[in-house]
Amino acid sequence: MRLELYEIYRDIYIEPTREAYELALEYGYLPYMIQRYIDILGYKEALELIRAFEKPVKPVVRTNTLLVTSSELKNRLQQLGFKLEEISWAQGSFWVIEKPKSPTLGATHEYLKGYYYVHRDASSLIPVLLLLYEYSGDILDACAAPGGKATYAAQILKQRGSGVVYANDLVLYRLRALIGHIMRMKLDNIVVTWSDARILYSKLKRKFNRILLDSPCSGEGRISIDPSRKRKTSILDLAILVKREIELLSSLVDLLEPGGILAYVTCSIAPEENEYVVNYVIRAKSGFKLIEPPIKLLNYSKGIIEYRNLKFSEEVENCIRLWPHIHGLFGYTICLVRRE
User: Could you give the residue numbers annotated as active site?
Assistant: First the structure.
């Protein structure tokens, strides 16, 4: 599948309006990003989104139930001064409502013993729960570091008694973090590989029934914890990211067994990195379909099937969108691709 950068740039380029420039100046964004929000949501709701990005998100503690019960962990952390609230749709996971001055979440004895993993936000729990719903067996996490999803998947599969997580990443310093979490949490059903995910088949020479692709992206949905994302990605940078995302997804769907499912995930609300990417791939390659999530963990928003002059397949509506101003989480998108 030959893909030219100029084609992507042509598709996603937009000239911002005056109102987009004014909001961008007030809140410190690149104008094209504000124009996108207005085009998708309208001015009033776009402003709600921008203001939601100014609010902090609650970190999450996920219990390693292979080593400790969630109730015991909750009691231990509450004795240290943490206030926790259970997440109703993710058993054994807690929002951290209040924290003491000391210790930090990453400096408790319980953390060092591997009793829990700290997520910056609850959104990253969702793709693992959807992908592993009523499933036991091997899974490929193609861009796995630093390890939140890979360790979660390994924990679930270990409890079900079957399955190995193949956790791959290309960036060495991130792989070191992944390996550190695996050792800390005493997980023995994870195989770590170091490769560009676009050429993984030549390394592993096997296929999978479940694949997780948490694609490297602009990180635009994480503005609440990293305000630099407001201005970090130019429109050309975005086109380069989209090209790589299409290449990653296109190569990894070929690793699916018939009937297998791949979860394409980004911490971005940009349609260019989500609906545009999956639509491009399912149109270019036959035998793949976008499916609805098997369970409804919360009131997801649907995927976007029309964006400016772009019209996507109706299947794209099956993608899941999380919006900070609606769901109180990171901006996040999940698309489930099944091989027929």
Answer: 267
